[in-house]
Amino acid sequence: MLAAPVSAVRSSILSSFRSAYAYVRPWRLFFDLSAFSLPRNYTEASNRFRRNDTYFSGNNTIVTLTIVFFSLIYHPISMIIFLISFFAWITLYFGREEPFVVIGRIVDDLAVLIVLCALIELSIVWTHVELNVFVGLISSCAVIGVHGVFRDTADLPLDESEKKMAGLICGLV
Questions:
Q1: pTM given for the model
Q2: Could you give the C-alpha distances from 138 to 7, 50, 54, in angstroms and in order?
């Protein structure tokens, strides 16, 4: 009797993880050391950062979450709360394909976002790990910034808007 609801919840969580993980690019491409080089000027550096940040957005999210998670290593209660909130974000916000329904009413994505952000903020304040989270976020910004600026974008495939700008797709309306 209990097996059916547990199975449904398990399959829902697994499908949420699969749909959220679809935004992650291959890690071999992310860590390809042969693709790292110094940019020639500031314009190239900013273009590289924008392109890498867009292309590797899922990977950058995982890097940020991992660094923030490890910044809480000396606060086990905070780590548990972090994991619970991580699963809540995946299940309630990123992994949903259908509208979120509570008591027969559809809940707007903005409302879900506000509630999840408020819960995160309350848990950070309640467990007194503001400085740890801040240092983790600053560290992840530095790691992502260095990766974005120094990783060359020549081997990355073009997306649709870049193909149009390069004249590879005819823009007939």
A1: 0.71
A2: 39, 18, 19
Instruction: Give the 3-state DSSP-derived string for 92-146, with helices as H, strands as E and coil as C.
Output: HHHCCCCCEEECCEEECHHHHHHHHHHHHHHHHHHHCCHHHHHHHHHHHHHHHHH
Q: Which residues, including other chains, have CB under 8 Å from residue 94's CB and lie 6 or more apart?
A: 16, 19, 20
Query: 107 has which bridge partners?
Result: 100
Helix (H) or strand (E) holding 17: helix 3-21
4-44 pLDDT, tens per residue?
555 655 666 566 566 556 668 888 999 999 999 999 999 99
Helix (H) or strand (E) holding 12: helix 3-21
117: its two tokens: 């952000």
